[in-house]
Design a protein that fits this description.
Length: 91
């Protein structure tokens, strides 16, 4: 996967590549973004992990996560299923 950075340092993911990780076409993935169904986070490494980043993209109960080295190259990536947030079962 090719990941770039814009001039402000934000990560830029190619939508077709990330869509494929979720088993979707680019258009289907973009539609889900427009619907507000896709969330993402970036975590910067600290201490012994300084210079690395962890990118996470969540769509429904699926989570794609990649670890990047200090040059921005993908060192590992995975797609996993995650549990939804717990709901109260009150009356």
């Amino acid at each position: 996967m090719h990941i770039e950075r814009d001039p402000s340092g934000d990560f830029i993911l190619e939508s077709g590549e990330i869509a494929a990780r979720f088993g979707l076409s680019r258009d289907d993935f973009r539609q889900r973004i427009r619907q507000g169904l896709v969330t993402s986070t970036v975590e910067r490494g600290e201490a012994e992990d300084i210079g690395t980043s962890r990118l996470s993209v969540r769509l429904g109960n699926r989570l794609w996560r990649a670890i990047l080295n200090s040059e921005g190259e993908v060192q590992s990536e995975s797609v996993t299923f995650v549990r939804g947030r717990g709901r109260s079962s009150g009356s």
